[in-house]
Design brief:
heterotrimer; A mainly alpha (629); B alpha+beta (300); C mainly alpha (228); A: 629 residues; mainly alpha; Cytochrome C Oxidase, Chain A; globular; B: 300 residues; Immunoglobulin-like; 2 domains; 5-stranded mixed sheet; 4 helices; 10 strands
Chain lengths: 629, 300, 228
């Protein structure tokens, strides 16, 4: 029994054959061509709107759908349903052992999925960021500089869509997948295979969006407004498919999170003992489950308009562009809070650790998260104040939009009061959390201008609103994303990140973030609309200032990337189990967390914020039976 | 695992931190708010060329004034906390006092934020309903300024990628330049021939989306003469960035003579232009003679 | 046990470590409800599109002459969906009452009737006398029914899976775990599905709820697209 002989290692090519990422890519490309030629064979050139171009919209859609299906087959996602269709025994687990290979394929270990998400989303975050650099490069001059109009708009659209679609899962993907089961004392998510599916769907979606450049790009920005959408070349189909797939991924991610949190909490973990991060995940997930389907529906309509000649959005065919705008923003505004709420949750989760005080006003904080969740459904028409839709409803939407600052204020007061009389330690994660207060405050205050109709008449659709949502999303979400990385990555990987580089990253990012986006408020106030590549000569100085700051901001990101690669791949300094002296349960486990999470399922007797209230509780009571080993 | 932090004994502070913070905040707010109103207010957009634009400056000033104490609150709080509640460097890990909540602070906070927010909403609604604030209100406007019935009506037509303007009271003349008489109430009817545009006449304080098949109405009351910038504020395709022009507010006599000239030019081409209508979208199937030729949507 | 904490004393570690058997059912029921919520919001978009475009009637192209859906086809299709959902409900009752053979029959019938509904839908599309390009109503009609078709198809696949598991394990008495499961980490061995019959029951509860909900949406479809 003890004399285990080392298994014979098969040659490398044998190890590459099987259900993994490589097979997925190969079958994905194969599926793409099957869909492409299949659609051509079925419909022929009859739907060819372009005359001299040898494709139609249907073949583009079918090609990508075939590609996604092939990709999923190659990853092994269809094995299980196929087995189930034949009645073979069900199972919850797949490929949870096997070293590095499990990161490149379907794996049902929630911790592996979390790390997959971190790198996958990071990759597309950097592609999106690179787009932003190119946009700012074009805007160095008030007139045409490098990119053609179409390329410029494609960059704008890819930047926005990539960031929106990817970063919606930016916290929930890596951190909630990794941490929620641990925080609630479970060993898995409710639906582990679905969990893996959400990740690979998102990666397929990202690849599709990137290939839009081979189909002429798309001119609509991330909002994809009709009827420009239906007018655009085939690159638009990539946008539609990207967002629809990201929407499916979001729906399933949210569904899985809610089911896990509702049903799988360990004994003693009552609702009022949940870490606030889990509350944030829960509220975000509820928005995902309900809002993303509306996005999928409206993009389906777009796809039908483009490929099947329906007229949902064309006024001459009995449709209306307002239909698109309404439905898009019914999704779009909850989406904004899908981005913002995890940020709130991370700030509230981390402040007690670094202020050495309990989270102040726990119930108020929960009420704030839930209040924002609820109100975010009632504000969407503030994106349409000047669109000419429902002029008489504008006072209502003005009110509901401004009301949302009340529950947001709960987050502020809870966070601020947690600092009060604390023992504040300015670690790197804490710095990012503290920056959130400043950034999100400016974002919120500029939001008041946008919510007020008379002010919105000038600020709507200008760089002002662009600056506003970068303050809330980049200042709110991305800063806390980095806080989460610096806080939890040592736990996830077992290796420390370099603190000095972290501080350099923080200070450069904070300074250049503000130096990039604060002038944009002024630029918007001074009559520069969003998404233009041509602007007034008088605004060149401000625009150049912003561009240079943006490049510095990009450099700051490179510092982070260097830190990440340097610390995790070369230095590999082992992380302590609890480097921050946190009371949260994940820090009572070894770093990295073992596959089974807990030797014993923990039993909770308090929330994790009892700083100054005595020693950390024993999670597993001393009298627990020895179990089966 | 890090050593267990020492159990907290709530320090008996000799100073009243709460009072000191509130005083610091109040003092700073009282100083900063008037400064913002006096120095920032006048440079806020969009200008004084119309009553609506002027009202928007008023609105923006108010919002900036209300925002200032809020900004001060958070910034002063953070700075105060950083200075007084910083853990000593290199010292042992000490927990702060386990303060979990305080009903009084919560109630006060909720009441203050709620009152502020409701006041802002009421203020915004009042401002909006007075004269529409220059925003597009759709085909059936609710915020109609007094005397709007005998306005000068101007139609703004967006198409990829330029703005044209029609004056129904001058025989539907279509021009490339927007010229308005001073001290006049103007009703702008904004519509589009193809995709969604947004008519943004900056100094007039006007923004209204141009939607195909919709007559989006906005009101302005012009003041003195001057020029204003027009831009498209909704992404409308390839040359969105180039979709701008300049308009003028001129005296009544200048406007009349300008209109006469335009009418004369227009007469020669009038038969090629569809008659004036609220919108220019016709059924794809039927070919009504009153419709403009339908621009083909495909082919971008 | 020295601890005075009530929660700690009341823990049955035998159950806890092995993952309580009803957890799977709770998960699936939660997922069924959430899926229903997501589905509702998906179709709300189409309901909204219907009433919005109908009220706008832009360019008079909401329902041009000759565009009207056939009530007969609609009734037949929706009746199939409803009947299938009803049979699954009854089958669930059978399964709960340990009449597993009767559940299998009802499940099979439900599957077949559901498929008939889908086939009717496909034929129905060709029999409407108008195409997707014929105005606002035609757009909503084809978009809505096409996606309802996809949702029903997915639900029927789920039904087939449950049914197939039932059929394969028809000879195994309740409670006996079959062989052949994924294994791996010893701590997580017991966190896998041991008893496919418990899964069938849990799945049936969730599936029956979801299929009934979707049939409800089909009825809404019938009212909105065919009746009014």
């Amino acid at each position: 029994m003890t004399a285990v002989t080392a298994p014979l290692r098969p040659p490398i090519w044998r190890r590459l054959v099987g259900f993994n990422l490589l097979t997925g890519i190969v079958l994905g490309i194969g599926g793409w061509y099957v869909g492409w030629f299949g659609a051509h064979a079925v419909v022929g050139p009859s739907l060819d709107y372009f005359g001299d171009v040898d494709y139609n919209e249907l073949s583009v859609f079918m090609a990508y759908i075939g590609g996604v299906v092939g990709f999923l087959i190659g990853l092994g996602f269809l094995n299980y349903p196929a087995r189930r269709l034949l009645g073979y025994p069900p199972s919850l687990r797949e490929k949870e052992t096997g070293g590095w290979a499990r990161y490149f394929g379907l794996c049902t270990d929630h911790k592996v999925v979390g790390i997959q998400y971190l790198w996958g989303i990071g990759l597309f975050f950097f592609i999106g960021g690179l787009n932003a650099m190119l946009i700012r490069f074009e805007l160095l001059r008030p007139t045409h500089q490098v990119f053609s109009g179409g390329t410029y708009l494609t960059l704008v659209g890819m930047h926005g869509t990539m960031m929106m679609g990817m970063m919606s899962s930016g916290i929930l993907g890596p951190f909630a997948n990794y941490l929620v089961p641990i925080m609630i004392g479970a060993r898995r998510m409710a639906f582990p295979r679905v969990e893996a599916l959400t990740f690979w769907l998102l990666m397929a979606a990202g690849a599709i969006l990137t290939t839009t450049i081979f189909f002429g790009g798309f001119p609509t920005g991330w909002t994809g407004y009709e009827p420009l959408n239906v007018q655009a070349a085939a690159g638009m189909d990539c946008y539609i498919l990207f967002f629809a797939l990201a929407g499916i991924s979001m729906t399933l991610l949210g569904l899985n999170m809610i089911a896990t949190i509702v049903t799988m909490r360990a004994p003693g973990l009552t609702w009022m003992r949940l870490p606030i991060f889990v509350w944030g995940v829960l509220s975000t997930a509820s928005l995902m489950v309900l809002a993303a389907p509306v996005l999928i529906a409206v993009l389906s309509m777009s796809a039908l308009d483009r490929a099947a000649q329906t007229t949902f959005f064309s006024a001459s065919g009995g449709g209306s562009n307002y239909l698109y705008e309404n439905l898009f923003w019914v999704f779009g505004h909850p989406e904004v809070y899908i981005l913002a709420l995890p940020g709130f949750a991370i700030v509230l989760e981390l402040l007690p650790v670094f202020a050495r005080k309990p989270l102040w006003g726990y119930r108020l904080a929960v009420a704030g998260l839930l209040g924002v969740t609820l109100l975010s459904w009632m504000v969407w028409q503030h994106h349409l104040f000047v669109s000419g839709i429902n002029g008489d409803l504008r006072p209502f939407y003005m009110l509901s939009t401004e009301l949302i600052s009340i529950p947001t204020g709960f987050t502020f007061i809870c966070g601020l009061m947690t600092l009060w009389r604390g023992q504040i330690r300015f670690t790197v994660p804490m710095l990012f959390c503290l920056a959130w207060f400043f950034n999100f405050l400016l974002g919120g205050l500029s939001g008041v201008f946008l919510s007020d109709v008379p002010s919105d008449v000038t600020t709507h659709g200008s760089f002002f609103s662009m600056a506003h949502f970068h303050y809330t999303i980049m200042g709110g979400l991305v800063f806390t994303f980095f806080a989460a990385i610096y806080y939890w990555v040592p736990k996830m990987t077992g290796w420390q990140l370099n603190e000095t580089l972290g501080k350099i990253h923080f200070w450069t990012m904070f300074v250049f973030f503000n130096s990039t986006f604060a002038p944009l408020f002024a630029i918007g106030f001074l009559n520069q609309p969003r998404r233009v590549n041509v602007y007034a000569h008088t605004l060149q100085f401000l625009n150049d200032w912003v561009s240079v700051s943006a490049f510095c901001l990009g450099t700051s990101m490179l510092i982070f990337l260097f830190n990440l690669v340097w610390s995790l791949a070369f230095v590999k300094k082992p992380a302590l189990a609890n480097p921050w002296a946190s009371r949260s349960i994940e820090f009572q486990l070894p770093s990295p967390v073992p596959v089974h999470n807990f030797d014993r399922i923990p039993v909770f007797s308090s929330d994790p914020y009892g700083y100054g209230e005595g020693p950390v509780p024993q999670w597993v009571p001393a009298g627990a039976p020895a179990g089966r080993d | 695992m890090a050593s267990q932090p020492t159990a907290a004994t709530p320090p008996r502070d000799s100073v009243n931190h709460g009072l000191r913070f509130v005083v610091a905040w109040l003092v700073l707010s009282v100083i900063a708010t008037p400064l913002v109103v006096i120095f920032v207010g006048p440079i806020l957009p969009p200008g004084n060329m119309t009553t609506q634009a002027h009202e928007q400056i008023y609105d923006n000033t108010w919002l900036a004034a209300v925002s200032t104490p809020v900004l001060c609150l958070v910034v002063v709080f953070l700075v105060y906390a950083f200075v007084y509640f910083r853990a000593p460097k290199g010292g042992a890990l000490v927990d702060g006092p386990p303060l979990r909540e305080h009903a009084g602070i919560q109630v006060v906070w909720i009441v203050i934020t709620s009152v502020t927010v409701l006041m802002l909403a009421a203020f915004g609604t009042y401002q909006l309903l007075q004269n529409g604030s220059g925003g597009g209100q759709g085909p059936s406007p609710v915020a109609v300024p007094a005397g709007a019935s005998h306005n000068l009506a101007v139609q703004v037509i967006g198409q990829q990628w330029e703005w044209t303007f029609r004056y129904p009271s001058f025989g539907g003349v279509e021009t490339h330049e927007l010229v308005l008489p001073q001290h006049t109430s103007v009703t702008l009817h904004v519509t589009s021939l193809d995709v969604v545009h947004s008519f943004w006449a900056y100094q007039l304080g006007v923004k209204a989306d141009a939607n195909p098949g919709t007559d989006n109405v906005a009101y302005v009351q012009t003041r003195g003469p001057g020029t204003f910038q027009i831009r498209c504020a909704e992404l409308c395709g390839l040359f969105h960035g180039y979709m701008f022009s300049t308009g003028r507010v001129v005296s009544a006599t200048q406007f009349q003579s300008w209109a006469k000239t335009q009418e004369a030019i227009y007469k020669t081409i009038a038969k090629y232009v569809p008659p004036y209508a609220k919108t220019y979208i016709c059924p794809a199937a039927g070919t009504s003679p009153t419709c403009s030729p339908q621009p083909t949507l495909r082919g971008g | 046990m020295a601890s005075a904490d009530v929660t700690q004393e009341s823990v049955g570690y035998e159950i806890l470590e092995g993952e309580p058997p009803e957890l799977l059912g709770r998960n699936l029921v939660a997922a069924g409800h959430l899926l229903a919520g997501a589905t509702a919001f998906f179709f709300v978009a189409f309901v909204f599109a219907y009433f919005y475009l109908r009220s706008l009637n832009s360019a008079g192209m909401w329902k041009p002459k000759g565009v009207d859906s056939s009530v007969g086809w609609g009734t037949a299709i929706v009746a199939c969906y409803l009947l299938s959902a009803l049979l699954v409900r009854l089958g669930l009752a059978d399964h709960l009452a340990l009449r597993r053979d009767q559940w299998r029959l009802k499940g099979l019938a439900a599957l077949l009737i559901g498929i008939v509904g889908l086939v009717l839908q496909v034929i129905g599309w060709t029999q409407q006398g108008f195409g997707p390009a014929d105005g606002g109503f035609a757009s909503v009609y084809f978009g809505w029914t096409a996606f309802l078709f996809l949702f029903v198809l997915a639900t029927l696949l789920w039904l087939e899976m449950t049914l197939a598991t039932s059929l394969r394990y028809r000879k195994i008495p309740t409670g006996a775990p079959p062989p052949g499961h994924a294994a791996g980490d010893r701590h997580r061995e017991r966190h896998d599905i041991r008893d496919p019959l418990s899964l069938v029951r849990a799945e049936l509860v969730a599936l029956s709820f979801y299929w009934t909900f979707l049939a409800g949406i089909a009825v809404l479809t019938w009212i909105v697209l065919y009746l009014i």
